[in-house]
Specification:
With 101 residues, the protein is an all-alpha fold. The protein is 66% helix and 0% strand. Helix 2 packs antiparallel against helix 3 and helix 3 packs across helix 4. Residues 95-101 have low confidence and may be disordered.
Amino acid sequence: MRHILDIRCEEEDVEMVEDARELLTEIGLETSLRYAIQLITTSSLVANRRKAQEVEVEDIRRVYSMFADVKRSIQYLNEQQDIYMFSETLAQPNSSKMQVE
């Protein structure tokens, strides 16, 4: 995975400190390669905004907290499902059907 992320950083012309590459690799192993690749671009934007030449660990952490991976999204939705409209339709499956007398 590390090799793929290194290639992607090179292709996107993103300079990254070694510690940030290690963190990105760990995140990729825990979540997915796709998610880790998306963090490369977003963390590069954060680094550019602070006028840095390289992406640092803080940049990776910031975008990790801003953008959820699939596992964290599912966890959040499960925890918050009671406040969403669709939870009502699951609780009352016959409520949308027309009753014929």
